[in-house]
Amino acid sequence: MSTVSGNKVEMKKKFRIRKSPSDIGIDILIILFFTAFTLMCIFPFYYLFINTISNNDLVVSGKVNFYPREITFTNYANIFKVSTLLYSIFITFSRTVLGTFLMVITTAWAAYLITKKKMWKRSFWYRFLVITMYFNAGLVPWFINMKMLDLTGSFLAYIIPGMVAPYNIILVKTYIESIPDSLEESAIIDGASTPRVFFKIIIPLALPILATITIFGAVGNWNSFQDSLLLMSSTPKLMTLQHVLYTYLNQNSAAMNAAMNSGGSSQLATVQMNSTANQYTIAMVSIIPILLVYPFMQRFFVKGIMLGAVKG
Amino acid sequence: MSTKIYQSGQNRQALEKIEKNEKANIFEIIGRILAVIAIVLVFIPDVNPARIFIGKEIYSSGKQQWLSEEGKMNINISLFTSAVNYDATVEHLKTDYTKGVIKAKDADGNVIKDENGKVVKVPVLEEAPFHTLQLGAVLVLAGIIVSAVAECAGIGNRKLRSYAYPAGILGSICSLAGIYVVLNAYNRIEQRILEYADPEEFNQVFPIGIYVFAILCGLMLLTGLAKWITNIIRLREAGDLRPLKPGMQEKYRLFLMILPVIFLSFLFCYLPIYGWRYSFFDLVTGDYTLTANKFVGFKNFKYLFQNGGDTLRVLRNTLVMSGLGIATSWLPIAFAVLLAEVPSTKFQRLVQTFTTIPNFISWVLVYAVALAIFSRDGFLNQLIGIITGNRPDTIYLQDGSNTWLKMLLWGTWKGLGWSAIIYIAGISGIDQQLFEAAKVDGASRWQCIWHVTIPGLLPTYMVMLLLSIAGILSNGMEQYLVFENAWNTETIEVLDLYVYNLGMGSSPNLPLATVVGVTKSFIGITLLLVANRVSKVIRGESIV
To answer: Residue B480 belongs to a domain with what CATH number?
Structure first.
């Protein structure tokens, strides 16, 4: 990111061309467009946030639109009394930490070994791992397979299937290939075993790319919804946060329809008040961690995605 | 043994040469194949030796069928599950077979009565044999794992093999013992049923897996013995050319180190293909056992292509939405190019930071956002109310019009900033001298963009475009699942969502959902190969 602007500034200095009025007009239009789009991207989150920290009565009557009113954190306090939500936060957090850690180690290990030219049938096994990125057997066979492996209704289903991530293997492999061989060779001559070389030399040198895949993996795990929906519908204690949020969004619209049909306006108002408050608050709870780690992960984006564009 | 072992440099080299050129003998090859087969079969329910299949026989339309829910036990449980998950094995036992429905009889066959003269009732099945059953399954599984590990070690040098082969033999013996234990449990259950239950009503089917695994483990034992003996003979013959330490050639060592990863990939990406067999059977809801009389060949495939109403609708939705995505795939380039035109670096960075946020939240959250903005009391209606003084009651999400366009807009909102990053990085990768040369030649701003920037980004764009064409049938299901409601289901249902609704919905039709999935997989892989070929022709480089 910084390089783009750096080069541009340099260029501007060298070839400062006087801008015509129409150029300036176009600049203004571009800036207006980007301002509008950026606002569109962040305003919804701001809107959710001010609604969760305002008085619920004001929220329902539609008086909280641009800034919070009568700030209160009761919604957040209330939401943490719901046990299913606490469970789901715990589950999602554990899977994010454990799943991401195991994914990074396994992926890095596979990528490192794949760079070893001496391996028996190396290119075949590399294709074997990578082709799974483009091919899958389908949803139902996958589900039946998970049943066969006894992973329905089991926490392990969140961790083990994600351990081999083909796209990340490509990223890490490309990166490791760019590390000079001499470092590794000197260690091997000193008698270091392959795992030792991996942990003592490859991992420290590949840290930037490992950080990138850690972040992608962690965000993916935190946002995971589909596996929970398919595998954990009969074990509510293992639902992920997104799944719980989804059930809330669905349930509440059902509850509101029911209340609307029965005609009780006061009942409708209560249902509505609780439902919107709950929905917004759960949504905020699941967005906040992402927003918190966002500044740290941003610097790894470009590196990761540029490496991804390079064919493995 | 009087053989002297020399490890002088000369001898070691001679030994390495011999071992390198040594071909695996027939027993070793058979042993490896058997080990791979055994490992795969461990996960296949149909050949699970510990699958105790008890049914109440019912007859309908002349065909013998098993009562769907209560009539069968652990039917879809693999040997692996039988070994590691006792609860799954006895799941139906607890609900259906322990109910006190059977009159207890004493040794002479008289009905036992308690002190008050009431008939004593006992459960049809006790739990005890099932403990034995699990023990047997654990033994079989453990034996197979030991054999497989030994088989891996058997790739090593002669010294390593002299450890590996006895271990493999022990593994097969352990498996055979396990099968004996399973057989014992089976017989006890059988006896109990004969003794107490109405044979008309309760019928136990002999698990075919007992034969399969008995034969498999028997063969493994035989080949193991053969390998062991040949290895001993080899070591004798080798005389002083004997390896002192267990070891392995590097190429195989590296392979064995990556083998666990390959195994995981196989389990979760390749083994599901076994589920394709469901597409050849006719199943009713709730009964997922595959028996020969339900085999229908390609009937489900024919149904898919002949009764095309739903298929065509779903295909149309899929193609339109993917098509719209492809038609707007130049947007990220425009975004990147325009952003690079903004004079302020700070502004660029700010825009980039905030526009990538939506990419990192899930579709469920996007839906929550949509509810906040577009529901009846949402922001949009409030805003209109503030501006015009008259708040509308429209619920924008409960509306089936322009679904395709709306979905495209949500997708763009979520992904545009993120997709642009690759092009922003691409612009910085363009040689600055090109810009300078163009400026010197008097190129205008737009000429610079058109003749330098865009051509510089085209190769990346081509890859992205080809990949999105290859994935034209897979638009994922999360987005459409969360936005689906009674109003828009006609136009929002894409292939992936259709498969989900078919297979996991309220009245699941597993075979048809599988058929759709299978067809989609084949078309997808074909498209990918075509895209790859096109890429090779155009760019001289493959994308896969």
So the answer is: 1.10.3720.10
How far is Cα B350 from Cα A271, in angstroms, rounded to an integer?
39
**Same domain for B170 and B240:** yes
Residues B348 and B231 in one domain: no
> Any chain A CB within 8 A of the CB of B238?
no
A271 within 8 A of A254, measured Cβ to Cβ: no
Alpha-carbon distance of B544 to B542, in angstroms, equals 6
- A249 to chain B: nearest residue by CA? B368
B477: amino acid identity, one letter? M
Residue B388 resides in a domain: yes
Position B451 in a domain: yes
- Separation in Å, CA B259 to CA A104, A188, B24, B255, B412: 17, 22, 20, 6, 41
Q: Are residues B317 and B184 in the same domain?
A: no
Region of B61 (left: φ > 0; alpha: ψ -120 to 50; beta: rest) is left
Are A120 and B255 within 8 A, CB to CB? yes
Contacts of B308 (CB under 8 A, 6+ apart): none
Residue to mutate among B76, B268, B333, B409, with most A CBs inside 10 A, is: B268
Contact of B187 with chain A, judged by CB distance below 8 Å, is answered with no
Is the domain of B175 the same as that of B308?
Answer: no
User: Rounded CA gap, A156 and A161, in Å?
Assistant: 8
Which CATH class name applies to A79-237+291-309? mainly alpha
Q: Are residues B260 and B306 in the same domain?
A: no
CATH 1.10.3720.10 segments of chain A: 79-237+291-309
Report the 3 state secondary structure along B59-79.
Answer: EECCEEEECCCCCCCCCCCCH
Inform me whether the pLDDT recorded for B488 exceeds 90: no
Reduced to 3 states, what is the DSSP secondary structure of residue B459? helix
With a CB cutoff of 8 Å and minimum separation 6, the contacts of A245 are: A279, A282, A283, A286, B364, B365, B368
Total domains present in chain B: 2
Whether B292 is covered by a domain: the verdict is no
Q: DSSP assignment, residue B47?
A: G
ipTM beyond cut 0.90? no
Contact A97, A293 (CB under 8 A): no
* Residue B343, domain extent: 300-539
Which whole number is the average pLDDT over B268-288?
82
Rounded CA gap, B133 and B215, in Å?
19
Query: CB-side exposure of B290: number of CA atoms within 13 Å?
Result: 19
Backbone angles phi, psi at A232, to 5 degrees: -110, 15
Using the beta-carbon criterion (under 8 Å), do A1 and B352 form an inter-chain contact?
Answer: yes
Residue B57, pLDDT score? 47
| Lowest mean pLDDT segment, chosen from A139-143, A252-256, B4-8, B82-86 | B4-8
**In Å, how far are A174, B123, B271, B331, B337 from B464, measured between CA atoms?**
19, 64, 30, 13, 17
- Position B289 scores a pLDDT of 64
